[in-house]
Amino acid sequence: MKKRQSGSEEGSGGECPSRLIDARIEELGDWRGEMLARVRTLVQQVDPEVVEEWKWRGVPVWSHAGMICTGETYKNAVKITFAKGASLDDPSGLFNSSLEGNTRRAIDFHEGDEIDEKALKALLQAAVDLNTSSAG
Question: The YdhG-like domain covers which part of the protein (predicted)?
Answer without folding.
Answer: 33-128
